[in-house]
Amino acid sequence: MPKRDVEHYIVDVLVAIYKVNHLVRSFFSKQELLRDFRSYDAVLRELQVIGEAIGNLIRYKILNEQYRPIVDFRNKITHEYFGIDIDIVWSVLREELPLLDKVVHELVLNYSEKNSLIEAIDCALIDHQRMQQGEIEDFLKKLKKKFI
User: Fold this and answer.
1) Tens digit of pLDDT for each residue in 83-129?
2) 143, part of any domain
3) Which of 12, 35, 127, 147: CA 20 to 30 A from 106?
4) Cβ neighbours of residue 74 under 8 Å, at least 6 residues apart?
5) What Å distances lie between residue 92 and 1, 80, 96, 100, CA to CA?
């Protein structure tokens, strides 16, 4: 696998947050989400993506160590399959994820390497076009327009 630039991790976080928000928007309680194993598993997968990407953003000094608990949470859901606390997951979805989304969007708007970020968005766009994921394509196109 080729080395990924830091901008790809930024886009990974934004896409994963978008997917999580899409997945959970119809659930009004943690019990509803838990009963829908497909959505629940998909949410956990996207939280893993977020944690992995945040770990790389910390490593590249784009984010500081204050975000390390996100990486720790990723490690927990990756390795403790049946020990995951739905209360914590629900809290992350309802309280922590919106805050992270805001932080990463602010990071994007103030990012100095705009062309590299656009290239990373284009890479993600190509991947999602290949998978025919129109809604995510639209999200990425809107994100890209912020820089053009």
Assistant:
1) 899 999 999 999 999 999 999 999 999 999 999 999 999 999 999 99
2) no
3) 127
4) 47, 48, 50, 51, 52, 54, 55
5) 31, 17, 5, 10
Beta strands in 1-40, from DSSP E residues, in sequence order: none
The pTM for the full model equals 0.93
| Number of compact structural domains in the chain | 1
> Residue 104 falls within a domain, yes or no?
yes
Whether residue 13 contacts residue 104, with contact meaning beta carbons closer than 8 Å, is answered with: yes
In a domain, 88, yes or no: yes
Closest alpha carbon to 24 in 82, 100, 90: 90
DSSP letters of 65-133?
GGGHHHHHHHHHHHH-TT---HHHHHHIIIIIHHHHHHHHHHHHHT-S-HHHHHHHHHHHHHHHHHTT-
- Is 120 within a domain? no
Amino acid occupying residue 97: L
